[in-house]
Structures are given as C-alpha cells and as structure tokens.
TrEMBL record:
Residues 11-57 form the Cyclic nucleotide-binding domain. The keyword Glycoprotein does not apply. This is Crp/Fnr family transcriptional regulator. Keywords: Activator. CDD domains: CAP_ED. Gene3D superfamilies: Jelly Rolls. It comes from Pontibacillus chungwhensis. It comes from the Bacteria. PROSITE patterns: CNMP_BINDING_3.
Amino acid sequence: MKDILIQYMKRFTDLSESQLKELTVDIPVTTYKKGTILLHQGEVPSKCYFVLKGCVRQYAVDEDGNEHTSNFFTEEQSVTIFNQHTTDKSSKYSLSCLEDCTLVVGDLATEQSSYDVHPVLEDMTRKMMQEDMGALRDEFSSFISSTPEERFHALIANRPDLINRVPQYQLASYLGIKPETLSRIKKRVASE
C-alpha cells in the first residue's frame, strides 16, 4: 500500500524510490471500517490523513441538525483540517469513512520533529499543500459561478467515481442542491 504514497510523493521531490521507501518506513498506515468517524465537529484535530484506499467525507452539521457535505477525499488525496487561524483550533467539520479505508496517519503533535529528522518532508508537504490549496481555490471559484447542472457536469468530468461511491443525498449536498434536483439533472443528462 505504501507504494501508492511513494508514487504520489515522487511528484513533489527528486528523491529516488529507495530514498522515498526509507522515508516511509516509519509512517503509520491504519485501516478503518466504513462508518468510522475520524474527527467530530468541534474537536481539535490531532491527526491528518492521506487516503491510500477508500473514501472519506468532510461535512458539518448546522444548528437545525442538517448535514452539509463540503468534500470527499479518495485515493491519493490528503485529508487535513486547516484551522490554525481560529482562536480555539476546533474543527468546523467532521470526517467520516464512507467505505473501509486504508489511510496514512500523521500525528500533528510530532509533525515538526518529523521535519527536523527529515527536512525534505517539510518541503514536500509545502508543495503538496500548495497544490491542494490551488485546486481548492479553483473548485470554489467554479462552484460559486456555476449552475447546479454545470456543477454536475464538472463532477462527471473531474470525479466520476463519486457518482457510484457516494450516497445520492450526500452527493446532492456536495453539489449544493436537493436530492430531487440531482435526480432531475441526472435524468436530463442521461437523455442527452
């Protein structure tokens, strides 16, 4: 499984495969069952993750008890809650395994000591975060300027695997629409 991580890391460094294998020897990989909550909304995150296999959902529950899905993380995606800018450092989101997941687990408390031992990790992490933040900014800009049908077409183009992996009501929430609207859009698209 760590081969997936090594292939991903190659995008952000010139290190050889043997050097990357050496770097990943002590990195913990954990399997979680479908339905496992990795982080509850309101908790202070202590871990970050990288998906080797499976699907993790990021969502928030509003004051009325409604869930709002803001992201899905699948293979070769990092799962991190960026909340260091907040006063209490608590997460505004929950993270839940939608499938059985195999994840690399990073301990935020020992992050700096890992960088001290392996300085190249800090540089790779920075590059990974820059890529993630750029993609997130692009997705957000596209989301707010598009219609629900355009969002669905973008989903088909960019993340088609989610359509069969994610419950429809969660997918509708992610697209910012009601499940009935998603059904109508899917029917229109299927008839095209």
